[in-house]
Predict the structure.
Amino acid sequence: AARHDRGTSRACDFIREHLVEPLTLGRVARAAGYAPDYFSRLFKRQQGMGFARYLSQVRIERAKHLIYETKLTLEQVQKLCGFRTRGHFHRAFKAGTKRTPIEYREIGP
């Protein structure tokens, strides 16, 4: 159990450190030292959600911080959080916060 905890912890650290880059389940699984299929099951059991959902939540949390705490443009925030397109960023952000990035900047948390 401790080895699995370390593996998922290593994966979460890897995700946060490489958030700007394209991250796939396979790449993160390798960084954690697991085969992708096994890692997917382990990650879901340990984190209570699948890899894609977790990755999206981490990116949205970082975007929320950058939008509210910095003067960066929304395009800069989008890129720093690993969203490849503006449309995807806006859809994911609104799905995660119920507000657009512009509304979040104006109104706050």
Remarks:
- The two ends are 36 Å apart (CA to CA).
- The mean pLDDT is 93.
- The helical segments are 2-17, 25-32, 36-47, 51-69, 74-80, 86-97, 101-107.
